[in-house]
Specification:
The chain contains six helices and 13 strands. By secondary structure, the chain is α+β, with helices and mostly antiparallel strands.
């Protein structure tokens, strides 16, 4: 990982779990319950999911819609220890899924907009079945998420996954709205946040701000002119 103060693309958190107990519960979950990920253009090989918390309580519903109400699924009801794992996180949980990537599978480079801690979302991975040959590529970093440990992934970064092992990789993935407990956990683990966007919108930067100002002035509405002036003031002061 880059040394501080480089903002965290990923972070290992001080929470680890009993993988032997998890293995027993994974074996009890019937394979037909799992569904292939719907974003078929995002991956090669087999990428299957099973929801433990979903919008309607259906274990095969892996869609995520902001501000939806999430409920435990029947699959989670089969897993006493996994419920203990979830309860150990003193925060709300929205989507919770088991994610299985088959041997040789690839999740292609992509970004999940709004998927960063700074956006109010902690996306946590707990590898349940994995090997050293399973790696994430997160921007310029390649890293293996160790088995039984808890890892934060800044999903707003460009990331990909490569399973170069001979076995299926399974992760437990939790989406957790940031609360004071998570903030304290991250701070104590050495979390380094990204710097605030200087222009208020991460899509606006020094390379394109002058063009955006010109377009806003051309639009000519009161709101556009007000925003153009604010961007111009910020640019002048940098």
């Amino acid at each position: 990982m880059h040394d501080a103060p480089y903002p965290c693309r990923y972070l290992k958190l001080p929470m680890s779990f009993d993988t032997a107990r998890i293995e027993a519960e994974l074996d009890a979950l019937l394979r037909p319950q799992w569904v292939s990920h719907m974003n078929t253009g995002y991956y090669e090989g087999g990428w299957r999911c099973l929801a433990l918390r979903s919008m309607d309580g259906d274990a095969q519903n892996i869609q995520v819609i902001p501000d939806a109400e999430f409920r435990d699924t029947e699959a989670l009801g089969q897993c006493d220890y996994l419920r203990e794992v979830l309860d150990s996180f003193a925060c709300d949980k929205t989507s919770v899924r088991l994610m299985a990537l088959d041997a040789g599978g690839v999740i292609k480079p992509h970004r999940d907009r709004g998927g960063a801690f700074e956006d109010g979302l902690a996306r946590l991975h707990i590898p349940l079945r994995t090997q050293a040959a399973v790696t994430f590529c997160i921007d310029d970093d390649e890293v293996h998420f160790s088995r039984g440990d808890t890892w934060y992934l800044n999903a707003d970064c460009t990331h990909a996954v490569y399973n170069r092992s001979p076995d299926t990789r399974i992760h437990l993935m939790l989406d957790c709205p940031v609360n004071p407990w998570l903030q304290q956990l991250f701070d104590s683990s050495g979390f380094v946040p990204r710097a605030p966007a200087p222009y208020g919108d991460p899509a606006i930067n020094d390379d394109n701000v002058l063009d955006i100002i010109a377009n806003l002035r051309t639009a000519g509405s009161a709101g556009a002119l007000q925003l153009a002036q604010r961007l111009e003031d910020t640019h002048r002061d940098r």
